[in-house]
Amino acid sequence: MEWQASYASGAFLMPREALTDLLRPLVVASGKLTPFRIGTELSDQLIAAVTDAFAVSREAAKIRLIKLNYLSDKLVTATLFD
Questions:
Q1: Looking at the whole model, is its pTM more than 0.90?
Q2: What separation in angstroms does the CA of 23 have from each of 5, 40, 46, 55, 78?
Q3: Which residues pair with 72 in a beta bridge?
Q4: Among 14, 76, 2, 1, which residue's Cα sits nearest to residue 40?
């Protein structure tokens, strides 16, 4: 139940549509496909943008971005477009 409460809180504070609208220019400007690897400059920019726009902690922003497949802690393999 605690996991469900945390997920619902993140979704309430950082709605998917608003988050997508906020991050679209950053993602498009990067010229890369999501998800971005956690710990990179681009992932830090996304986390900072969400933190500032929605007044949430870095950890909450990071978790929400992982859940929405903007970030990954797994090794991201190169694609044809990288």
A1: no
A2: 25, 16, 7, 15, 21
A3: 37
A4: 76
Single out the residue of 10, 25, 3 nearest to residue 57, CA to CA. 10
For residue 2, what are its two tokens?
A: 């605690």
Contact residues for 28 (Cβ-Cβ < 8 A; gap 6+): none
Positive or negative: CA dihedral 21, 26, 28, 33: negative
Interval 15-38: pLDDT, tens: 999 999 999 999 999 999 899 999
Give the separation between CA 80 and CA 78, rounded to whole angstroms: 7
User: How is residue 15 annotated by DSSP?
Assistant: -
